[in-house]
User: What shape does this take?
Amino acid sequence: MTKKDKYKKVAYYPGCALEGTGHAYNRSTKAVGKKLGLDLVEVENWNCCGAMEVKNVDPKIQTYLSSRVMSTAANEMNMDVVMAPCNGCYHNLKKAEYDLKNDTESVDVVDRLSKKAGHKTYESGQVETIHALDWIKETIGEDGLRERVKNSLSGIKIANYYGCMYTRPRHIFPEKDAGPGSESTSKPHFMDDLLEAAGAENVDFPLKTACCGGAHTLSDSDTSTKLVLNILKTAKLAGADVIATECPTCHSGLEMHQIRAEKTLGEVVDIKILYFTQLLGMALGLKAKKVGVHENISNSIGFLKEKGLG
Amino acid sequence: MMSLAAIESAIQSISAEPDASASASELLKLSEAVIEHWIVARGEKPTDEKREGFRLLALHRQGAKGDPSFNACRETCREVVYHYNLITMQADDSEITNRLDMMKMISSHLFLFISGKMQVAELGEFCCSAKPIRLSSDLETGTAKEP
Assistant: This one.
């Protein structure tokens, strides 16, 4: 079966962030999927992937938590693909997959905890974890998007920001850097490709995988603010009107520290921050509200109206 | 070794005038100096070797040994090198000022990332729990264990 067919119906793992600060990403991902005729079946009774907090305390517990999500998809829902739009969830499921394939101690811990919890142990290879970018790129692709665009993103200059967890560490993403058509870990381009197909003009953005300080946004807000401010200013210098995101942690970090930079450092950087799914959704003819633009912290309604969107 | 505060200030003061290529070389050296801080704070000697023709890339590789999370600045280092090449190989390009400004932003990001990481690891020269201060006070009391 080709990826195009395989990814048309996937187990959807939104993760905690998409039910909270990243709700606009949840809303826009579902809306875009529906518009494109793709089927999302939410993982039943899903749990936290282990995020950064659990991983820092005990990485093997994180492996178990992520494996439980994959076990539910494979063993209870009979699905073979899990789609996680959050970079943290995506990264953790991929890491769990790698560990369960290569580390017998992880296999033992996951088996023991799964039995204790009363569900089938996840076995490496039962599901394939993909990101929302893979999902749209492989099923619809650039040509398919071009055919479906109703409101071109023409005239919008975009800096595509992938964050640090979508490509790192390289060894947990064996499908990346795998020749023509695959994603690159050093210069990711899937988001660039999709938004360009929707009519946008991508700028050359050198910090597309740089750290936004998301991991220590609470413990060291000042450093996070400076890192985000530098990302915003670099995108602006590159000529961008908008930073497109594909991670709820990066997105909320960029939005919140944009405001914090203004309040604490007096630095105002006028650049809009939107999820790539919000931009694609509006290009496909969905209203701004339908893709949750009103749920973003930053206000881009005026800008979008000016560009004929929303 | 130049202090981190001095490095930050030097990055900010660099300008494309009068010689953008010389300024790009200076930014490259300052980026190297940032990683040297990380390596020295971890008790190692910064390498003089080059990787793909650049000491910065060799230093990054050295800094990432034993700490995979340091790879979060791998592409930032490569972007510093890329912009250095753009500026020095096309010194008469009309975009030269913009390119140097961009290289400054990338070098600043490297500085912010590594100095932030050093604070988290309690390395460097930031507060009373910072390694150099802790070591010197241990030296005074004769309890120092680290070299």
